[in-house]
From TrEMBL:
PROSITE patterns with a match to the protein in the record: ADENYLATE_KINASE (PS00113)
Reactions accelerated catalytically: AMP + ATP = 2 ADP
Chief localization: cytoplasm
Keyword ATP-binding in record: yes
EC number: 2.7.4.3
Gene3D superfamilies xrefs: P-loop containing nucleotide triphosphate hydrolases (3.40.50.300)
Subunit structure comment from the entry: Monomer.
Span of domain Adenylate kinase active site lid: 127-163
Organism for this UniProt entry: Actinacidiphila acididurans
EC primary class: transferase
Family, per entry: Belongs to the adenylate kinase family.
Name of the molecule in the record: Adenylate kinase
Gene: adk
Annotated residues for binding of AMP: T31, R36, N57, L58, V59, G85, F86, P87, R88, Q92, R161, R172
Length: 220
C-alpha cells in the first residue's frame, strides 16, 4: 500500500506510523528521518537543508521534495510506503502526485488522524521530558512519573520543552490549519481520504486505522 498520514501535531502520527508500517510491511518514511539521513550522509540536498536550518530558516519545498523523491526511489519503497510529515502543503502534494504519475503508480489512501484541538494542547503542553535523555518522556496527566519532576528511568530532572508550551502549541496548530489542512481537501477530491478518531489507547487507534485502510474508503 502507498499511504500518506496526516493529522495535527499531537495526534500521534509518529507512533501510529511505526505500528502501521510494521503491520503493512512497508517502510515508514518521515520528514525528520529524511533530513537527518541526508545531513549525516552529506548529500547535496542534506548540505542545502543544513545551511537553511543552521541559519534558522525553513527548508524550502524543493529541497524537501527532492529528498522525498530520492527516498521513494529506493528499492524497499517499490511495493509501498507510508509517508509521515510529507507532503505538508499543497505544493508538496502536487509534486508527489506528479512524481507518482511519472512512475505509473498512485496513492492508495490518505489517513487523516482527527483529534480535538483542546486535546492536542493537553497532550503536548502536559508533556515532560528528561534533561538527561530526551527519549524519556512523561505526562502530567496521562503518564505521571512516580516522583513529581523526576524521571523514572534515570532520575533526571523532568521539564517542559520550550516548544511544548501552550502558546507554542497553539501557534503550531495555526500553521497546521493554514498549510497542511488544505491538502486533506485536495485528497478528498481524489476520493483518497479516510478520517478516523485518534482518541483512545494506541492499539485501538491502530486497529481503527487498519480497518479504515482496508475498507473501500470514506470517512470513519
Amino acid at each position: 500500500m502507498r499511504i500518506v498520514l496526516v493529522g495535527p501535531p499531537g495526534a500521534g502520527k509518529g507512533t501510529q506510523a511505526a505500528f502501521l508500517a510494521k503491520n503493512l510491511s512497508i517502510p515508514h518514511i518521515s520528514t525528520g528521518d529524511l533530513f537527518r539521513a541526508n545531513i549525516v550522509q552529506g548529500t547535496e540536498l542534506g548540505k542545502k537543508a543544513k545551511a537553511y536550518m543552521d541559519a534558522g530558516n525553513l527548508v524550502p519545498d524543493e529541497v524537501t521534495i527532492g529528498m522525498a523523491e530520492d527516498r521513494l526511489d529506493q528499492a524497499d519503497a517499490a511495493e509501498g510506503f507510508l509517508l509521515d510529515g510529507f507532503p505538508r502543503n499543497d505544493h508538496q502534494a502536487r509534486a508527489l502526485d506528479a512524481y507518482l504519475t511519472g512512475k505509473g503508480i498512485a496513492l492508495d489512501g490518505v489517513l487523516d488522524l482527527e483529534v480535538p484541538e483542546d486535546e492536542v494542547v493537553k497532550r503536548i503542553a502536559g508533556r515532560r521530558t528528561c534533561r538527561n535523555n530526551s527519549a524519556h518522556t512523561f505526562h502530567v496527566e496521562y503518564k505521571k512519573p512516580q516522583v513529581d519532576g523526576v524521571c523514572d528511568e534515570c532520575g533526571g530532572e523532568l521539564y517542559q520543552r520550550t516548544d511544548d508550551a501552550e502558546d507554542k502549541v497553539r501557534n503550531r496548530l495555526e500553521v497546521y490549519h493554514r498549510e497542511t489542512e488544505p491538502i486533506i481537501d485536495y485528497y478528498k477530491q481524489q476520493g483518497l481520504v479516510v478520517t478516523i478518531s485518534a482518541l483512545g489507547p494506541v492499539h485501538e487507534v491502530t486497529q481503527r486505522a487498519m480497518e479504515a485502510l482496508r475498507s473501500d474508503g470514506g470517512e470513519r
